[in-house]
Design a protein that fits this description.
The chain has 296 residues and is an alpha/beta fold. It has twelve helices and eleven strands. Helices cover 42% and strands 13% of the residues.
Length: 296
């Protein structure tokens, strides 16, 4: 869990973790909280003996905090779940994830839909289901994995640990994990049933992004080129790890880099050859336009 100024909703989340139907251990990176969050965490740790460990975060935001936690995993980790500080987990969240990941060969990443709630946990709806399957071609242009639902199998956790050491400029840790696991040929499982209540409030780093206005704003940002910096950061990270990618995905990454080509024709050819796609027709059409304009 990455913690920063989380006193308002932290205890409720901790209690939902404690209610899981499998044995758990909690490791928290505190990024310098000055509110009552650390005291709430200490009280919870006192109730659960040695099952809670607290580390000092790097002070580089949520993504940096999670990456530091991943880099600090043991060399042979078990299953690893990521937790936000303000959600409420369903009591079977971890058990369901472990069942879904059971028997997966190689690195695997589980994620799920979420119940979108307001800060009082009043229901607002469900996150959208993907209409196309996960892949590296998709991961390079759009995230599919809600980080607060993510669970890695031991092979996936070991992969994430090695990759997190030396990671730089990562925009979103969940997007990075999606690219990493698909890039090496691993498996991503998206559960159509929600596994937690996602609490949407004013201090969320990234909202659910699921309403029509939010989706329109996201597409507008892409057309204006505001996603381009994120894409370039993602590209640099995957190029750093390109020796780990499958041969096919190394070619896909080269074609993604060609989306920065000098002319619209070059960029559209790279789009076609790379087979890049986003979820939904409007989002996909926007991707083609943004590529032609050099704004991917």
């Amino acid at each position: 869990m990455a913690l920063y100024q989380g006193e308002r909703f932290l205890r409720e989340q901790l209690d939902s973790i404690a209610a899981q139907r499998v044995r758990w251990r909690l490791v928290v990176g505190d990024d310098g909280s000055t509110d009552a969050g650390p005291q709430i965490l200490r009280a919870f740790a006192g109730e659960w003996g040695g099952r809670v460990a607290v580390r000092t975060g790097p002070g580089k935001g949520a993504a940096g905090n999670f990456l530091a936690l991943l880099a600090g995993l043991p060399t042979e980790p078990g299953f690893v779940a990521l937790a936000d500080q303000d959600d409420v987990w369903h009591s079977d969240k971890l058990a369901r994830a472990l069942r879904a990941l059971d028997g997966a060969d190689g690195p695997a990443l589980y994620c799920s839909r979420v119940e979108i709630r307001d800060e009082t946990l009043r229901p607002l709806g469900l996150s959208r289901l993907p209409v196309r399957l996960p892949s590296f071609r998709h991961a390079l242009v759009q995230n599919l994995v809600p980080g607060n639902t993510a669970v890695l199998n031991p092979a996936g956790a070991a992969l994430a640990r090695r990759a997190a050491i030396g990671a730089a400029g990562v925009v979103m840790h969940d997007w990075w994990l999606y690219q990493l696991v698909t890039g090496v040929g691993g498996r991503v499982i998206h559960d159509s049933a929600p596994s937690l209540m996602y609490r949407q409030h004013g201090r969320n780093v990234v909202g659910a992004n699921d309403g029509p206005l939010a989706r329109l704003a996201s597409l507008t940002r892409m057309l204006r080129g505001l996603h381009r910096d994120w894409s370039h950061a993602n590209l640099r990270e995957m190029q750093r790890l390109q020796d780990w990618l499958t041969p096919e995905n190394r070619c896909v990454l080269d074609r993604f880099a060609a989306l920065n080509g000098p002319s619209p024709l070059c960029r559209l050819q790279a789009m076609r050859r790379g087979g890049f796609y986003r979820q939904g027709r409007l989002s996909q059409a926007t991707l083609w336009v943004a590529a032609a304009l050099g704004r991917v």
